[in-house]
Specification:
The complex is a heterodimer of chains A (366) and B (322). Chain A has two domains: 10-111 and 247-316, Response regulator (Rossmann fold, 3-Layer(aba) Sandwich); 117-240 and 324-347, Response regulator (Rossmann fold). Chain A is 43% helix and 15% strand. Chain A contains 13 helices and twelve strands. Chain A has helices at 10-28, 45-59, 70-83, 113-126, 140-155, 174-182, 194-206, 222-228, 230-233, 248-261, 267-286, 291-300, 349-352; strands spanning 63-66, 86-89, 106-108, 131-137, 159-166, 187-191, 214-217, 237-240, 312-313, 319-320, 323-328, 341-347. In chain A, the strands form four sheets. Chain A has a four-stranded parallel beta sheet, sandwiched between helices. Chain A is globular. By secondary structure, chain B is mainly alpha-helical. Chain B has one domain (18-312): ABC transporter involved in vitamin B12 uptake, BtuC (Orthogonal Bundle). Classes of the chains: A alpha/beta (366), B mainly alpha (322). The A-B interface holds A 2-8, 10, 138, 164-167, 169-172, 174-176, 178-179, 181-182, 194-195, 198-199, 202-203, 206-209, 223-224, 226-229, 231-232, 263 and B 8, 10-11, 14-15, 18-19, 21-22, 116, 119-120, 123-128, 130-131, 138, 140, 144-145, 147, 149-150, 219-221, 223, 225-226, 229-230, 260-261, 264-266, 295-300.
């Protein structure tokens, strides 16, 4: 596992899942055997789908988790639905996962582009960032993130001055940044992820675009901030489903994760642990691994762990839980390694995610 | 504000300058490739990985050993170059008598191995290398903010490129090198140690890649795939310039950087749009052509140019037919 997203998911996700299983066995002493297998889907939908089919047919896999990148998540969800197996998406972000393409065998656990847009978009407009220009990765995810965010910006009374699409992946952003600069927008929204975001932020500082205009990283992970350093990212707002240093419970778990990986967990890692634990509890409580029974049990039971308090799985598969609007600390404010965020606002579960009334998921009865 | 095809004059100047800045990386990398191809007949696919290693060595030096930028600029190319010479002596040497493809496959395999090892050790998100004290900040030119560091990059790469050109085209050492390109057996017969020249040339080409890597470290995020993102473009530059042509690769590097800058500004797309608007052509014809030169397709532009050049002048703009 070594692609663009391997630091935010990748081997860390596998480690989190293994931790969840080991902890579950130690704590609950189940009378069934749990096996974890993993594969690298290379962010390609077709590879992921083939692997999933093979796993379900020959290895008798009951549940597939993580699924970073929207295209792989959607492909595997389809296979799992057809074979009547459970998927839990923690890595991918796009909203179609619980809308047009929702399935009754899938849960979307950690975050989505709607939650990111609502969290970061709203906060930045409220801070006075009224005019926006988007720097958007030229593929489905980037466009979905831009669309969701523009809607929030407009609703909050801001305006969108324009956008530029950049090839994915890209190395040099200076030309695109100059266009963003000449738009005169107060805020440059980065509708991209991973290394694209990192390079864009770095070069914005270099060309003197920040701090005159501010950047809004619409999808940023702890691993990105770690890579860029606080000097380049200080003051940025971002939305996350999990931050390791939030309370004693999150710290305790994250430190155990750190022992294994020598890196603090991203929200995807924490979400994987939480999801797998919830699933295993449901299997134990129902005394079967039958998909429908376990799924019903998972939906009926609130999620209460270090990741989510009173989290609930909705009929469209969306697990709703609190999200956190955080601001990146200044280097002088960071007191110890990985001390990166101020939690500025807890976005309550009810507001963080797309309401069911707006859902395009056929499972939602209106 | 005055406008040229929908782009303000200021914006255009900015884009041209940015194009020049990027062109300097293309130039220095394609120069290394051209030198290696010229003498060794090896298409060095490991060039991107060697560029990445140069950047990483600088970062490692800074982080673990406290080696500053200027020392890194000297030491990193030396170390990576020496490593390159070991590769040449140990592996590449055995392939000279075979088809180009074998060299290409070997270096491609090596590139994958190097990148894999760095990914395994450092992860994919990469590391951040700060701009050194004296070169931080920049100057506001009115139409754009020009970072000092970028000016240094252009100056350094121009100096290295022209220096290299001078040595190869105007000195005794360079004449051996060119003679070796033409007819190695004859040169050997004159008592010149051709294998040594070959090893040194490969080492120098690799060192150029590492030098570019150190130059790039403060600008781009230092990560294991930084080379593979760039190397394909650089190959296109070499092909357009003419395989093995020294001046060709320098000029083409800068020129294609400039063209890419203009395309990214959206000017070409606007220009094509206004031309097509005045012609009675169907939208289905216009759209793909416009798309090819739109900012989001800027990654493709260089390859379109490459394809055209290959059709018109298969040996490249500055190359000679062999």
């Amino acid at each position: 596992m070594s692609g663009t997203y391997s630091d935010l998911a990748g081997p860390g996700s596998l480690a989190a899942v293994q931790m969840a299983v080991a902890d579950f066995i130690a704590r609950e002493k189940p009378d069934f055997k749990i096996e974890v297998i993993s594969a690298d889907h290379q962010n390609k939908g077709d590879i992921a789908a083939i692997k999933a089919r093979e796993w379900i047919d020959t290895e008798k896999v009951d549940m597939i988790v993580d699924l970073v990148t929207t295209s792989t998540a959607l492909a595997v969800m389809k296979v799992a639905k057809e074979k009547n197996r459970i998927t839990i998406v923690s890595g991918a972000a796009s909203t179609p996962i619980t809308n047009e393409q929702c399935t009754d065998t899938n849960v979307h656990w950690t975050y989505d582009t709607y939650a990111l847009a609502v969290g970061t978009g709203k906060a930045v407009v409220k801070q006075g960032g009224k005019s926006w220009f988007f720097l958007t990765a030229d593929y489905a995810f980037g466009k979905s993130l831009e669309k969701d965010t523009s809607e929030v910006v407009l609703k909050e009374g801001g305006k969108v001055l324009g956008h530029v699409l950049h090839p994915f992946p890209a190395q040099d952003f200076s030309s695109f940044l100059l266009q963003a600069q000449s738009s005169g927008a107060q805020v440059i929204g980065l509708a991209n992820a991973g290394n694209d975001t990192i390079n864009a932020i770095k070069q914005a500082a270099e060309f003197g675009i920040t701090p005159k205009q501010s950047l809004a990283g619409l999808l940023m992970f702890l691993s990105d901030v770690h890579s860029l350093g606080l000097k380049a990212t200080q003051g940025m707002y971002l939305t996350t489903g999990f931050y390791w240093d939030r309370n004693n419970e999150t710290r305790a778990w994250s430190k155990r994760f750190f022992e294994k990986r020598k890196k603090m967990p991203t929200m995807v890692h924490a979400g994987d642990y939480s999801a797998v634990t919830h699933y295993l509890k449901a299997v134990k409580a129902s005394g079967t691994d039958d998909t429908k029974t376990v799924m019903d049990r998972m939906k009926a039971t609130p999620v209460n762990d270090f990741f989510a308090k009173n989290g609930k799985i909705r009929v469209d598969g969306r697990m709703v839980h609190d999200m956190y609007l955080v601001q990146v600390k200044k280097p002088s404010e960071s007191k110890y390694p990985w001390d990166y965020y101020f939690i500025r606002q807890v976005i309550p579960a009810g507001q963080a995610f797309m309401p069911l009334s707006e859902s395009k998921c056929p499972l939602v009865k209106k | 504000m005055a406008e040229v095809f929908g782009v303000s004059i200021q914006g255009l100047f900015g884009q041209l300058l940015v194009g020049l800045l990027n062109g300097s990386f293309y130039a220095i990398l394609s120069l290394g490739l051209a030198i290696i191809f010229g003498l060794l007949n090896i298409i060095n696919f490991a060039h991107g990985a060697q560029y990445m290693m140069g950047a990483f060595l600088a970062w490692i030096g800074m982080t673990y050993l406290g080696v500053g930028y200027w020392w890194a600029l000297l030491l990193s190319p030396l170390l990576v170059g020496a490593f390159g010479m070991l590769l040449e002596r140990g592996m590449l040497k055995r392939l000279y008598k075979l088809d180009h493809l074998y060299g290409l496959l070997l270096t491609f395999g090596l590139a994958l191995i190097f990148e894999g090892l760095f990914r395994y050790r450092f992860g994919i998100s990469g590391e951040s290398y700060p701009v050194t004290e004296g070169l931080a900040g920049g100057k506001n030119l009115g139409f754009m903010f020009l970072p000092k560091y970028r000016v240094w990059v252009v100056a350094a790469s121009l100096a290295v490129c022209l220096g290299t050109w001078y040595v190869i085209e105007r000195t005794k050492l360079g004449s051996y090198l060119r003679a070796g390109t033409e007819n190695p057996a004859l040169l050997q017969a004159f008592g010149v140690n051709v294998p040594l020249i070959i090893t040194l040339t490969y080492g120098y080409g690799v060192a150029l890649a590492a030098f570019a890597g150190v130059l790039a470290a403060p600008i781009f995020n230092v990560n294991p795939v930084m080379g593979s993102n760039l190397i394909i473009v650089v190959f296109a530059v070499v092909v357009v310039g003419g395989m093995g042509s020294i001046m060709g690769s320098i000029v083409t590097g800068f020129a294609l950087g400039l063209i890419e800058g203009i395309v990214k500004s959206g000017m070409i797309a606007n220009l094509l749009g206004s031309i097509f608007d005045s012609l009675p052509v169907a939208g289905s014809v216009i759209y793909p052509v416009k798309l090819l030169f739109s900012p989001e397709a800027s990654a493709v532009t260089i390859f379109v140019i490459m394809a055209i050049v290959l059709l018109v002048r298969p040996a490249g703009l500055f190359g000679r037919e062999r």
